[in-house]
Fold this sequence. Notes:
Elements: H1 20-24, H2 26-41, H3 59-70, H4 76-81, H5 84-89, H6 98-114, H7 121-141, H8 171-174, H9 195-199, H10 205-211, H11 220-225, H12 227-236, H13 247-258
Helix pairs in contact: 2-3, 2-6, 6-7, 12-13
Amino acid sequence: MHWYIDFKDPVPDSDTTPTLFEWAGGLPALTRMTRIFYEKHVPEDPLLAPLFANMSPDHPVRVARWLGEVFGGPKLYTEIYGGYDRMISQHLGKALTEEKRARWVELICLSAQEAALPSDAEFQAAFRSYIEWGSRIALENSQLGAKPPPHMPMPRWSWVCDATPGSRVSALESSGVETAEAAVELPPRGQPVGFEQHVKPLFRERDRKSMQFAFDLWSYDDVRNNAPAILERVKAGTMPCDRAWPSNWVEVFERWTQSGMSK
């Protein structure tokens, strides 16, 4: 909520810009993305399936931790697996092709979209720039005879060309138009309440962005796990912070929490 109302602690010279890791939704969001990529898209792809046929069961978690550290999060990849040297070792001698690299980029970006990572222009510019840069380095390091420089530091990626959250005024928001705001369909009393059809549309894009650092309001698992706290806030009229929910919205959300919280 503080992000949404542009609240800033009065600390001189402090950097209040969130990291890419925080803006993405942290490790849960990145892991959700890598699981979609490696468990859904890779097995169905004729180019990538052979490449990852023998990957370890925790490979999606490892890649999520790598991306998390690169994007400014905790140094889990370095502490657990050994840092940049470890990542380079996974590509040596693989003789990757540009076609495979491009497919990897295409499907990881699709997985990011399906995992509901932020779609704002600023995040997408930073995210895609790293995916393109990192995949091209991996392609180069994989060629036969390649000798990557040893003991290089972990890459640290940030916002591109000062394009940070809040650095521009949205043409849609300034005119009062909600971006991709779905119509709210409230079920009559006595009818089942589902997350995708009834609960998720209650949360606007701006609501989701304001809470992305903690959990994802468009994620069934995140909302289910935090349902009591969310219900308390919407009942009190403090979430979202720019307006209180209508009483019938609150009633639908409470009914969902009391009826098994179905998808």
